[in-house]
Design brief:
This protein is mostly beta strands. It has one domain (13-154): Pnp Oxidase, Chain A (Roll), CATH 2.30.110. It has one helix and ten strands; from the N terminus they run E-E-E-E-E-E-H-E-E-E-E. Strands 1, 2, 3, 6, 7, 8, 9 and 10 form an eight-stranded antiparallel β-sheet that branches. Strands 4-5 form a two-stranded antiparallel sheet. Strand 1 and strand 2 (24-25) form a beta hairpin.
């Protein structure tokens, strides 16, 4: 592979978060931080009697992290409505996409590099910022979302 074709690492500052219900985007908020895209596997270690210099590793159950979105900006009340309705109907779940874009800006604009797809999302915590007349804080300080599955989807080469 030529040096010009070497893949660059993804940038962590150009991303968007979309919360969807039945394929329709519910939330148009922007966030300055996104954390918690993780899966952890519980590995079981088995030792064989008499074999002191070897061990067997078995895959155990796995768990997913908690998506933490900080310092959000939105003019709509969709996030607050979702949290409120989840109190009355805890079975109501959303899906989410965290899309990573290139660092490009004008003239071509940013292009999608990859996305994380989360399913079975449920709000765990919603925190409003401290209200202070002299600060220009945004209306959503932190949203924590638990999810049932996580999938990484790289953008296909030659795609749009």
């Amino acid at each position: 592979m030529a040096a010009s074709q070497q893949p660059y690492p993804f940038v962590a500052f150009n991303f968007s978060v979309e919360l969807t219900r039945d394929g329709k985007v519910l939330c148009g908020a922007q966030f300055s931080e996104c954390d918690g895209l993780e899966v952890t596997m519980d590995v079981k270690t088995i030792r064989e009697g008499g074999n002191n210099d070897a061990q067997i590793r078995l895959a155990g159950p796995h768990s997913f992290g908690t998506l933490t979105l900080k310092r959000g900006m939105t003019a709509a009340s969709d996030l607050w409505d979702w949290v409120s309705s989840s109190v009355n109907n805890p079975g109501q779940r959303l899906d989410a996409r965290v899309v990573i874009y290139t660092a490009d800006v004008a003239p071509k604009g940013a292009r999608e590099l990859a996305r994380f797809e989360l399913s079975g999302c449920l709000p765990q915590r919603m925190k409003a910022p401290s209200l202070n007349a002299k600060d220009g804080m945004v209306a959503v300080e932190e949203l924590q979302v638990v999810y049932q599955s996580l999938k990484f989807v790289p953008k296909q080469q030659g795609g749009t």
